[in-house]
Amino acid sequence: MTFGEKLKKMRNEVGLSQQTLADCLHVSRQAITKWENDLGMPDMDNLKAIAKLFNVSIDYLLDNIQNEPKIVLTEDFDLDDFDKNQYKTKYIAFEAMLKQRYPNTPIHQLTYIDKKRNPAEKVIDFLYYTTDVTFFLKSAENTIDAMKNAKLYYLIDKQDYQLFIAVEKNQFMTTRVVVDTSKNVFYIGNIQFAFIRKNI
After folding, report:
1. What is the pLDDT of residues 57-111, one digit of tens each?
2. Which partner from 82, 156, 168, 191 sits 20 to 30 angstroms from 72, CA to CA?
3. Quick one: DSSP state of residue 189?
4. CA distance linking residue 2 with residue 37, whole number of Å
């Protein structure tokens, strides 16, 4: 697979248009078209930016490596850096950016529920909950765990697949997933999520 084929595949994997990718890299859309058609190569600074953006190595981009990594688009975004005159809250500002990036596409807000536990962890949980003292310890542990995982989560519904977006203060990560959106509660990886708001 050529560099251009890899770039186009990664871009499509996370649902980006050529223009959006160009905006992320601060280059022209024509540059993206040229690279994807193998009519030119980005310079080293742009190669580093592409590798960082898609969480892949430069070796993967340049070499004929068969094992394809899972594409996770990682973009910097400071939730504290928003126009307070235009948006009431930083979360509304982020959602406005999502709506601009994915026009006419259902965008759902999710909430983190719990991690999937194996049988041994379920037994330990049962033992924890059978005494009053350990019940309170476990409750505190669950609260701390929920706070550590306190992020914003969104699901972009592209019909054939979905894009899962996890937002932290300084960046957000986009991954392609397949989720049954007819269910209100579902797993992405080993984490259980539920809808808070549909079609924001």
Report:
1. 898 898 876 566 778 888 887 767 777 778 887 788 888 889 988 999 999 999 8
2. 82
3. T
4. 9
Residue type, 11: R
Partners of residue 153 on adjacent β-strands: 110, 166
Structure tokens at 197: 């708001």
**E strand or H helix at 154:** strand 152-157
User: How many angstroms separate the CA atoms of 113 and 103, rounded?
Assistant: 28
Amino acid at 7: L
* Environment class of 195 (CB within 10 Å of its CB; exposed 0-12, middle 13-18, buried 19+): middle
Q: Are 142 and 121 in contact (CB under 8 A)?
A: no
Task: List helix spans (H) across the chain.
Answer: 3-13, 18-25, 29-36, 44-54, 58-62, 90-101, 119-129, 132-148
What is the pTM for the complete model shown?
Answer: 0.73
Alpha carbon 36 to its chain's center:
23
